[in-house]
From TrEMBL:
One of its GO terms (molecular function) is glucose-1-phosphate adenylyltransferase activity. PANTHER family: GLUCOSE-1-PHOSPHATE ADENYLYLTRANSFERASE, GLUCOSE-1-PHOSPHATE ADENYLYLTRANSFERASE-RELATED. One of its GO terms (biological process) is glycogen biosynthetic process. This is Glucose-1-phosphate adenylyltransferase. HAMAP family: GlgC. Keywords: ATP-binding, Carbohydrate metabolism, Glycogen biosynthesis, Glycogen metabolism, Nucleotide-binding, Nucleotidyltransferase, Transferase. InterPro entries: ADP-Glc_PPase, ADP_Glu_pyroP_CS, GlgC_bac, GlmU/GlgC-like_hexapep, NTP_transferase_dom, Nucleotide-diphossugar_trans, Trimer_LpxA-like_sf. It comes from Pseudaminobacter soli. Belongs to the bacterial/plant glucose-1-phosphate adenylyltransferase family.
Length: 420
């Protein structure tokens, strides 16, 4: 049963703790200079903004982000975009880099250790509940509903889960549940994933989202910290231990996903590969995309730069500044070039006679005259020389750029420099 409350949501007594230290190596050069949660997404935001916005929109006012790998870009973004929470309103926002607080040689050894090393900071706020989040997925979710299930079930841990086709679940941690969604076994990346009772062709895959009572979590982290055989990881160590020795419950994403009237399906994406990243961004150019970034009832908060509007100039045959089925951010100038089904972050400059189709362009890129690009991702600040053609000769592209399994070209400035 829910405990008597002071007429307020459970989220007001919760802290959201975002694990944002991962490198995201499958994104290749996109994470050479930044952690995966800091990678740009959707024309305006960073990936981490989704988890943080979900927490804020759910009513959670105490937020913390644990960083580690190449964190400067991420920390700078968080300082600029998430500095509006005020201590005098019982709000807080902490950035917690791996800082050798436990010993002079120990960085964060795993996801659980990234929380354990900051126990004193967490306990100083005295939250009743902890919502542990991964900072590298794109989705909209109301954590208040997950908190309610956690209390109603009197669970030790509640694990956020996706329903996925059973044989596609082998890349996840999979929950084996009974008919009441109590977790009876946790299997990491199984060859033969267990099905869901009543729906055997589907499986429950972990989203890397966990809810605990704070005191219980702290006890588990202290127990795990002295176990010499532990890898200090939630999915590998903490959750399986609780499944065996306590009560673990699965929370299905479909119960708390946030959808606008324009969204038909529950949307969740791991944009951890070049192909997945490109597809998720390009999908936003659809007439009715699966992810509604224009939903004012569940805004995605981020750092908003003061930039002038986008500008389209020239209106001559063959030299017309235009964009069709595209997203164009502020401070972009489309000067006699054309875009089709493309997504541009801020500061782009597209010069005359250039043609772009299905291109994701990160901030401050420049496209030279008469260049033609198709099915490409351009890293921050790339300058494409005049007349360069990408996406028409796969063999030539593979010699010059990073080409994904599905033929998407990833282009960075060092790659362009090597062409000279």
């Amino acid at each position: 049963m829910l405990e008597p409350r002071r007429n307020q949501p459970l989220a007001r007594d919760a802290m959201a703790y975002v694990l944002a230290g991962g490198r995201g190596s499958r994104l290749k050069e996109l994470t050479d200079r930044r952690a995966k949660p800091a990678v740009y997404f959707g024309g305006k935001t960073r990936i981490i903004d989704f988890a943080l916005s979900n927490a804020l929109n759910s009513g959670i006012r105490r937020l913390a982000v644990a960083t580690q790998y190449k964190a400067h870009s991420l920390i700078r973004h968080l300082q600029r975009g998430w500095n509006f929470l005020r201590p005098e309103r019982n709000e807080s926002f902490d950035i917690l880099p791996a800082s050798q607080r436990v010993s002079e040689t120990q960085w964060y050894e795993g996801t659980a250790d990234a929380v354990y090393q900051n126990i004193d900071i967490i306990e100083s706020y005295n939250p009743e509940y902890m919502v542990i989040l991964a900072g590298d997925h794109v989705y909209k979710m109301d954590y208040e509903l997950m908190l309610r299930q956690h209390c109603e079930a009197e669970a030790d841990v509640t694990v956020g889960c996706l329903e996925v086709p059973r044989m596609e679940a082998s890349g996840f941690g999979v929950m084996h549940v009974d008919d009441k969604d109590n977790i009876v076994a946790f299997v990491e990346k199984p060859v033969d994933p267990p099905g869901i009772p009543g729906n055997p062709e589907m499986a429950l895959a972990s989203m890397g989202i966990y809810v605990f009572r704070t005191k219980f979590l702290m006890d588990q982290l202290r127990r795990d910290a002295v176990d010499p055989n532990s890898s200090r990881d939630f999915g590998t160590d903490i959750i399986p231990y609780i499944v065996t020795h306590g009560k673990a419950v699965a929370h299905r994403f479909t119960k708390s996903c946030v959808r606008s009237t324009a969204e038909n399906e529950a949307y969740w994406r791991d944009v951890g590969t070049i192909d997945a990243y490109w597809e998720a961004n390009i999908d936003l150019t659809d007439v009715t995309p699966e992810l509604d970034l224009y939903d004012r009832d569940w805004p995605i908060w981020t750092y908003s730069e003061l930039k002038p509007p986008a500008k389209f100039v020239h209106d001559e045959e063959g030299r017309r500044g235009m964009a069709v089925s595209s997203l164009v951010s502020g401070d972009c100038i489309i000067s006699g070039g054309s875009l089709r089904r493309s997504l541009l972050f801020t500061g782009a400059r597209i010069h005359s006679y250039a043609e772009l189709e299905e291109v994701v362009m990160l901030p401050d890129c420049v496209i030279g005259r008469s260049a033609r690009l198709r099915r490409a991702v351009l890293d921050h600040g790339v300058i494409i020389p005049e007349g360069l053609v990408v996406g028409e000769d796969p063999k030539l592209d593979a010699k010059r750029f990073r080409v994904s399994e599905k033929g998407v070209c990833l282009i960075t400035q060092p790659m362009i420099d090597r062409l000279a």
